[in-house]
Amino acid sequence: QVQLVESGGGLVQAGGSLRLSCAASGTIFRINAMGWYRQAPGKQRELVATITSGGITNYADSVKGRFTISRDNAKNTVYLQMNGLKPEDTAVYYCNADRLPPIGSRINYWGKGTLVTVSS
User: Fold this and answer.
1) DSSP assignment of 44-94, as one string?
2) Tens digit of each residue's pLDDT (9 = 90 or more) over 60-96
3) pLDDT exceeds 90 at position 35
4) Which residues contact 17 (CB under 8 A, 6 or more apart)?
5) CA of 51: how far to CAs of 4, 14, 58, in Å?
6) From residue 16, how far is each of 74, 82, 115 by CA, in Å?
7) Which of 113, 116, 78, 115 is nearest to 6 (CA)?
């Protein structure tokens, strides 16, 4: 239905920046919200940021003011610009897409994740 592929992760020093990308393919129409989640070792997956089809954004308090989520519908891609990275941002970052099919309830799709490591 929908395939999500993340890229842009890597190793960066504290205070640095990274931009994550998530390219969607497959049945990409009728996708509403997209977002980024992250999971650190030994912790549960948590919300980082989301953006609706109307451009409404939502951020976790821990990243607000540092991270910016955006979409490029022409490229079927969602981005996460991460500035002022901190060691506590270290995690596997997962792309998520919410699709409302013609029949049935909303379905969430997940990418395989990209690792972000922030050194102190």
Assistant:
1) --EEEEEE-TT--EEE-TTTTTTEEEEEEGGGTEEEEEE-S--GGG-EEEE
2) 999 999 999 999 877 889 999 999 999 999 999 999 9
3) yes
4) 81, 82, 83, 84, 85
5) 16, 26, 7
6) 29, 8, 15
7) 113
